[in-house]
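Sample intake sheet
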Amino acid sequence: MTILQAIIMGIIQGLSEFLPISSSAHLVISSNLYKILINDDIIQESNQEIFLDIMLHFGTLIAVLIFFRKEIIEILESLGKGIKTKDFSDKNAKLGLYIIIGTFITVIIAYPLNEIAGRLVFEPIYVGYLLILTGILLCSSEVYSKKITEKKCDIELRTSILMAICQGLAALPGLSRSGLTISAGLLSKQNRLSAARYSFLLSIPIILGASMLYPLIKTDMAELREYNWNAIIIGTIVSTIVGYLCIKYFLKFVSKYSLAFFGYYCIIIGILTSAFFLFISMGL
């Protein structure tokens, strides 16, 4: 693994983690394209590549923590008061409680899909199909949302549960976490901005678990010494910077414009990905 590869992957992760285009799908596609270019085996993935992927997610976790630092502190303070007083009527206390409930729901749904997700890393054709599905959901939710005259600004429990279910399903590469959760918000009559902001907040415990707990359980500590740490650190920094800028400008975008653009993008990239890797698998 080279520094250039880590930088490219960091940019891709930083952009695609928060844009509704599936970061996991883009990492799968770019990784497999890179292997084709260097004439490597497409069905092999080193432990170092897996660790880099985890660290890139850690980079985007740092980005979302920095960007939403004020909201996170307010939610934690209100949640703490709610636990002491057993009163969760405060808006931020409710959000904290919803995020906790949503995280449990996400884990329950995502865990059984982990094995399938692992196989899809080496099946970019099917990842392309799931990207197409993400695009269709984004476009469909926008069409539905435009028909709603009065949109909600505050997240309700049932909306949080639906978004958590979608976040769990997004364990599969190609199903965009932000795309599915924001679509769920739009289908629940939320406005785009409130759905997007809650989607990012809901992602924090899951990204934290994936980037911190998973390495402790799965990583061979002795093998870590042999990794290209310069590339890993640089890639992580790049994903943090790009991720922060992506959150900042994406929230400005969704407050004014439709998400259908990203839906069309997912459909086009999905079709091209499936067609390209299908031809490769057939030796064409």
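Comment: The chain has a mean pLDDT of 88. Residues 61 and 207 are 6 Å apart (CA to CA).
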